[in-house]
Design brief:
With 587 residues, the chain is of the alpha+beta class. The protein is 47% helix and 19% strand.
């Protein structure tokens, strides 16, 4: 899953505790899932580049050293008690400004969530560095949670004010107790964590007694093909292969799944009786209510699962330090910067824009057709196009009445974005042709594809909605290519239907007449798009009459793609002529 949801879904085979897919993520964080900004693609991996002001990190380190002093652990360079209070005040003031600027710039982009992911990672890294200077920090850091949680919760709530955005991600970071002390989910060690943490009041031996009881019972039930357990695994953990169910890693993921755990705990005659008979649990129930013990266990399980998901997202965060800042910006990376003013640097990205424009809509809408029937015809056409966009990883930016604007590469860049746009265009034209043959529509269509730099913008619609779109000169050019006039086949406008002796295999038509007027009832692409295609595809050039033809057989759609130069179009407001290429195709 490539979109936002994919960030919250790990790989079941490599996960430690979480393997329930989207439903489990939503159970832990709520639905819809907390939003996060778009990622960059670096060496094939989707990542975030984040830069926070160096002074904030310096103040953070002094703040943490001051808290460690409060619990009796000194580290080299720690401030005196009187200075520590000023350090905390300075850090609080700086963090307040950063949070305020992040909220002001967020526009429901997820900047605040990304900041807390990055900042919690810095906390964990600094504590790890302090461990190397004083080994006593290793245990002491687990006692910091109440101090950190109280401090950060106060600041987050003050900055959030009347915001209606989901706070579940930030709450998980601040409340669960792992994000500030653990670098990754792999570093979580219950034997070290539970004896000294102040978040989960649960003895290590009690935790493992419940844990092992669930493991043994789940394994027995799987081997005996217990219908209730098997059906829950199949329903709530479909990505976990059956051959892994009885392995130790597989069993851990199974018992950690909430519906499975509820099923096991609800059986008072087996799991319940084993727990009651345990000497360790008996001793614990003399001090605490049984319900309190189980509530703490479940709270711990939820917390560690949330951290596994957050840990996977946080591993995508690359912290850009001052020394690397100029290089990162110069390379055109999208950089999320948090300082006195939060902003997104290089928010313009190279993307492919596809405009699809139905021909005959205006004439039809002014005829004897009812609005209801016209709307139904649009549903018939556009509903058939949507799966094609999704198949080739495009994004529908907006519906434009009689057209659609799509983008490829705004969520995550791929060198084959122009080809994916071309595949979408060809299959959309074929789909429309089939619908015409079936008598379900009379529309024809012009499609344009243009590659270039676009700016990502987010417009606030109301208290809950936001309209994300792309803007800029290249978006306008793509629109010009698609909205050109329709050409009558019998009209003598000085243009040629095709190069001499050549027939269009697809029956579609893109031409430019002697005046530079573009007629598009096919698929038109710009030179910039062609350049990108040539850079990544083995296009074959061969002569075709007096002109030249470029071709490429695309196995993904089973079509031979044919590209011809159509002419130089002239658009109002554009100084120079615009080279246009016609895309033809054959099975």
């Amino acid at each position: 899953m490539a979109g936002q949801e994919g960030l919250y879904i790990g790989e079941p085979l490599t996960a430690r505790f979480v393997a329930g897919g989207l439903s489990e993520a939503e159970a832990l964080f709520g639905a819809p899932l907390p939003i996060l900004p778009p990622l960059e693609v670096e060496k094939g991996k989707r990542v975030y580049f984040v830069h926070t002001h160096a002074r904030l990190r310096s103040l953070l380190q002094r703040f943490l050293q001051g808290l460690l002093v409060q619990i009796g652990v000194e580290t080299p360079g720690a401030s005196r008690p009187d200075q520590a209070a000023r350090d905390q005040a300075d850090y609080e003031a700086a963090l307040t400004r950063v949070l305020a600027s992040a909220h002001a710039a967020d526009r429901r982009l997820g900047l605040v969530n990304l900041f807390w992911l990055a900042h919690s990672r810095e906390v964990a890294e600094i504590l790890k560095e302090l461990e190397s200077k004083n080994p006593g920090v290793r245990k002491a850091k687990y006692s910091l949670h109440p101090l950190l949680a109280t401090f950060y919760k106060h600041l987050d709530q003050g900055a959030r004010k009347d915001s209606k955005e989901s706070s579940s991600l930030v709450e998980a970071i601040v409340d669960d107790g792992f994000a500030f002390t653990e670098a990754t989910i792999q570093s979580v060690d219950f034997n070290q964590y539970l004896p000294v943490n102040k978040r989960y009041r649960l003895a290590v031996d009690v935790f493992f007694e419940i844990y092992q009881t669930l493991l043994r019972d789940a394994e027995r039930r799987i081997r005996e093909s217990d219908r209730g357990l098997v059906s829950r695994i199949q329903r709530y953990m479909p990505g976990l292969p059956r051959e892994q169910w009885t392995t130790q890693p597989g069993l851990v993921k199974i018992i950690m799944n909430a519906p499975v755990m509820t099923y096991l705990f609800s059986d008072a005659w087996t799991v319940g009786s084993k727990l009651v008979a345990s000497p360790k649990l008996k001793a614990e129930t003399e001090r605490r209510r049984p319900s309190e013990i189980l509530e703490t266990f479940l709270d711990l399980v939820s917390g560690v699962k949330r951290f596994e998901i957050l840990s996977g997202i946080r591993e995508r965060v690359f912290l850009v330090h001052e020394r690397d800042l100029d290089e990162s910006v110069g390379r055109g990376r999208r950089l999320y910067e948090f300082g006195e003013s939060a902003r997104v640097v290089n928010n313009a990205v190279n993307a492919t824009v596809l405009f699809l424009d139905l021909r005959g809509f205006t004439k039809t809408s002014e005829g004897q057709i009812s609005e209801r029937d016209l709307t139904q015809e649009l549903y018939t056409v556009f509903d058939a196009f949507v799966p094609l966009v999704k198949r080739f990883h495009g994004t529908i930016d907006k519906f434009l009445g009689d057209g659609i604007m799509m983008t490829f590469g705004t969520q995550h860049a791929d060198p084959l974005d122009p080809l994916n746009a071309l595949r979408t265009a060809i299959l959309c034209q074929e789909t429309l042709h089939r619908l015409r043959e079936e008598g379900r529509t009379y529309f024809k269509m012009g499609i344009a594809i243009h590659y270039g730099r676009v700016y990502l913008a987010r417009f606030i619609v109301d208290e809950e909605s936001v309209q994300a779109t792309v803007i800029g000169r290249n978006v306008n050019l793509a629109g010009r290519l698609s909205s050109a006039a329709k050409r009558s086949i019998d009209e003598d406008d000085g243009s040629e239907a095709a190069p001499p002796g050549v027939a269009r295999a697809s029956g579609l038509q893109v031409t430019v007449d002697k005046t530079g007027t573009l007629f598009n009832e096919g698929v038109a692409i710009s030179r910039d798009t062609l350049v990108q295609l040539e850079a990544h595809l083995p296009l074959v050039h061969r002569p075709e009459g007096s002109a030249s033809l470029m071709e490429y057989f695309d196995e993904s759609i089973g079509r031979r793609i044919l590209i011809r130069y159509a002419g130089d179009a002239k658009f109002k407001g554009v100084r120079s002529s615009f080279p246009v290429y016609e895309v033809d195709y054959e099975v």
